[in-house]
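hiii so um. not sure if this is the right channel but i have a protein structure encoded as tokens and i wanna go backwards to a sequence. like what aa goes where. can anyone help
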């Protein structure tokens, strides 16, 4: 974990607290989301350039206008994540259905009947913070794996918000695997973000949007070791309904071949992103790790 100065940590913490308070109290959160989107887009031009490069690489058939629209949607989606997190203290079992509904819940029920736990293969698609939070209120609490934030003040704040609905956090430290496996043994669910770039020593290369991407091989190994059912799941924004839809795909069967299992899980993720490209976090340097001999994409 990178260390920042105490002053920087306090300033970042104060800024985030102010932003959450504004989203929580502002009478028109949609207008505030638009303002936040404008700030993101202008304050981080490097991230927008990364998104444009990703789109040129992954979706070569898109026009410049298409790419601009998708990048705008990406920032809008991120603003919705922050706006929703700000509302977490107000969302409980009595009103959660005003914000989100299920789609494909029968796949979760089937996984529970198998009795070996559930691994949610999720991603920075839609509202990844709200998906776990809402599932705890609408069905049952779950655990999810997170990397501690570099700023300890923000990490404590994020932990507080993420656990308000009864969920449990599993850090990526040395001892996170044991409680994760115990959770699955109790036929409970664990959510893991699978869409981030990793270094070759941690992962393997699979095809993702027609190009090689280095992904964490641990997810497929964990599924094979425990027999847990793998369900891709995402909280996607429905513009028509003006609310989120917590969508569960059918169970992806694991066969013990790490390469093949990893590829099929990411094929499901790619299909979901292609359906909702404006809701994926294209600002991440997803294809940073290249196969030997290939030049850097960025």
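sure thing!! here u go:
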């Amino acid at each position: 974990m990178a260390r920042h100065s105490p002053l920087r940590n306090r300033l970042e913490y104060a800024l985030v607290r102010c932003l959450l308070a504004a989203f929580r109290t502002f009478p028109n959160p949609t207008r505030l989301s638009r303002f936040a989107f404008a700030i993101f887009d202008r304050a981080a031009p490097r991230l927008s350039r990364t998104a444009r490069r990703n789109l040129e690489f992954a979706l070569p058939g898109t026009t410049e206008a298409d790419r601009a629209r998708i990048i705008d949607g990406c920032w809008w989606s991120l603003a919705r994540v922050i706006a929703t997190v700000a509302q977490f203290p107000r969302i409980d079992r009595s009103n959660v259905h005003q914000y989100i509904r299920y789609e494909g819940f029968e796949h979760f029920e089937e996984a529970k009947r198998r009795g070996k736990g559930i691994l949610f293969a999720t991603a920075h698609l839609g509202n990844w913070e709200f998906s776990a939070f809402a599932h705890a209120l609408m069905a049952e609490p779950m655990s999810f794996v997170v990397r501690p934030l570099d700023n300890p003040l923000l990490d404590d704040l994020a932990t507080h918000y993420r656990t308000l609905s009864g969920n449990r956090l599993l850090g990526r430290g040395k001892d996170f695997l044991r409680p994760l496996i115990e959770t699955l043994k109790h036929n409970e669910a664990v959510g893991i973000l699978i869409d981030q770039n990793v270094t070759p020593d941690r992962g393997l290369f699979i095809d993702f949007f027609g190009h090689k991407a280095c992904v964490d091989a641990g997810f497929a190994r964990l599924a094979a070791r425990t027999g847990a059912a793998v369900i891709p799941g995402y909280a996607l924004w429905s513009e028509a309904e003006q609310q989120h839809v917590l969508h569960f795909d059918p169970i992806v069967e694991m066969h013990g071949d790490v390469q093949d299992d990893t590829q099929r899980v990411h094929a499901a993720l790619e299909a979901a992103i292609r359906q909702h490209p404006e809701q994926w976090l294209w600002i991440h340097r997803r294809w940073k790790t290249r196969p030997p001999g290939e030049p850097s994409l960025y």
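oh and Residues 64-86 form the longest helix (23 residues).
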